[in-house]
Amino acid sequence: MPDGCDICAGFDDHLDADSDGVPDGCDACPGFDDNLDADSDGVPDGCDICPGFDDHLDADGDGVPDGCDVCLGDDDTVTATTMASAPTPTAMTATRESGRSTTAGCAVATTRPA
Ligand SMILES: [Ca+2]
Ligand SMILES: [Ca+2]
Ligand SMILES: [Ca+2]
Ligand SMILES: [Ca+2]
User: Fold this and answer.
1) Residue 68: nearest ligand to its CA?
2) For residues 63 and 80, is the Cβ–Cβ distance under 8 A?
3) Fewer CB within 10 Å, N or C, the chain?
């Protein structure tokens, strides 16, 4: 195929494992349809970190989009890591259930699905 018509330069345009029209080499979200982006933030629905919000807006730079940031202004990742070392599974579950509604804010992290 001529370079001018190459969808994904440097990769085989015919390889498209998830059949979304985007060659594997340029697939933004392997296994999901790259053309589906309900919140139009440029991240396909299947890989959207924070559906309904712009994944690229991250004021505190912790990798968690503003729309899903549990602790704006603080690093959510650090909090999550701390929570991962919680002593008992029971404690983890209790924390998770109360995570969203609590006003303790930065002291409690809510585990989000990957
Ligand atoms: Ca594809
Ligand atoms: Ca895809
Ligand atoms: Ca999206
Ligand atoms: Ca953030």
Assistant:
1) 4
2) no
3) C
